[in-house]
Specification:
The chain has 328 residues and is α+β, with helices and mostly antiparallel strands. The chain has helices at 3-45, 128-146, 158-167, 202-210, 219-237, 246-256, 263-272, 303-317, 324-327; strands at 70-78, 88-98, 103-108, 114-117, 122-125, 152-157, 171-175, 179-182, 190-193, 196-200, 257-259, 281-285, 288-293, 296-301. It has one domain (46-327): Aminopeptidase, CATH 3.40.630.190. The longest helix has 43 residues, at 3-45. One of its GO terms (biological process) is cell wall organization.
Length: 328
């Protein structure tokens, strides 16, 4: 074998080693990616709980996410004071989504709204429903109030909310006025908020959304801040950089979130509606006034305005039939 042939042979061997190394690295990378995706899917799948129901009692037929207009009840649950047992729903929001228009409506229900709790048959604050019967009782109470079917639900505890915001790198909100609010930590810290745009981490975002006593609009002002936070989170979730944080987000979600939405539904949503952001969300308001009854502070909704709100939601859901709860 001459020198020229030996050089060619050594060159081929080097190329083989390079390709072999690349092949091994690709195999390891694909294996790790597959393992990570499997772990992520497993973590996210642990959030699923269909409550043993195929549809709302106010639906004649079941609806399909991303095919039909649907409603989603979002419950922000304060459960650390009860050791993880049924706490109270500190935040109640109803979202409707129409897949044809790719538009969402978002309604925040004041937690002190005076309604009948089906489980007790008494008029109480709506956030008591979760303490009495968890998500099932809360769903029924909200359905009775708004006279619309609740197709899907999501419960998120405070720890999950803070962690999600932190994993997203924080959010930007527009603070309406200067105020202070204690953090929800066991050793509370006074957090300061200043009028104008502010970058908030998870702990600050929770305090911003929860503050009520210093707001001249009371529950109404609080609800507006909550909707602002949800819109900011949606914008972050829809950003391209979130793709690289799916694993971390899935870990947070798996431990602290429960829903009857499938993992595949969420993936399909962001694949189909890549440009969806807060500008596609119309915010709605339940009109009413604060009032003391027997020494207890309630939010008393305006019945005429409630009927208008019910019609608005029904039209978005293509649900124009009167429910049995209204007929009785």
């Amino acid at each position: 074998m001459n020198r020229h042939d030996m050089k060619k042979r050594r060159k081929r061997l080097r190329l083989k080693r390079v390709f072999l190394s690349i092949g091994i690295l690709l195999t390891l990378a694909l294996g790790y990616m597959g393992y990570t995706l499997f772990q992520t899917y497993q973590a996210a799948s642990s959030t699923y709980n269909d409550m043993g129901r195929e549809k709302s009692k106010l639906r004649e037929e079941a609806v399909t996410f991303l095919k039909d207009p649907v409603s989603i009840l979002i419950m922000g649950v304060e459960d650390y004071s009860t050791g993880g047992a049924n706490g109270r729903s500190d935040t109640l929001m109803v979202a409707t989504f129409d897949p044809k228009t790719a538009k969402m409506q978002l309604l925040s229900i004041p937690r002190d709204t005076r309604v009948e709790i089906p489980e007790k048959g008494t008029l109480e604050k709506i956030n008591h429903a979760f303490a009495y019967g968890g998500k099932e009782e809360t769903i029924e109470t909200v359905e009775n109030l708004l006279d619309i079917p609740i197709d899907y639900y999501v419960t998120v505890n405070f720890e999950a909310f803070k962690s999600i915001v932190d994993e997203l790198g924080g959010i930007t909100v527009d603070v309406p006025f200067d105020f202070t609010q204690n953090s929800d930590d066991r050793v509370a810290e006074k957090l300061e908020f200043y009028e104008g745009p502010m970058e908030l981490d998870g702990r600050e975002a929770l305090a911003f959304a929860r503050m009520r006593k210093q707001d001249p609009l009371n529950d109404i002002g609080r609800n507006e801040r909550q909707k602002q936070v949800v819109q900011a989170v949606i914008d972050k979730l829809a950003s391209p950089g979130t793709l690289f944080k799916i694993d971390e987000l899935a870990d947070v979600v798996g431990d602290n979130v429960e829903t009857n939405l499938q993992v595949s539904d969420g993936i399909s949503f962001f694949k189909k509606y890549t440009s969806f952001n807060s500008s596609d969300i119309e915010t709605l308001t339940l009109e009413g006034t604060p009032e003391y009854i027997d020494g207890i502070s309630y939010f008393i909704y305006n019945e005429e305005e409630l009927e208008i709100l019910q019609d608005t939601l029904k039209n978005r859901l293509n649900h124009n039939k009167t429910s049995s709860s209204t007929e009785n």
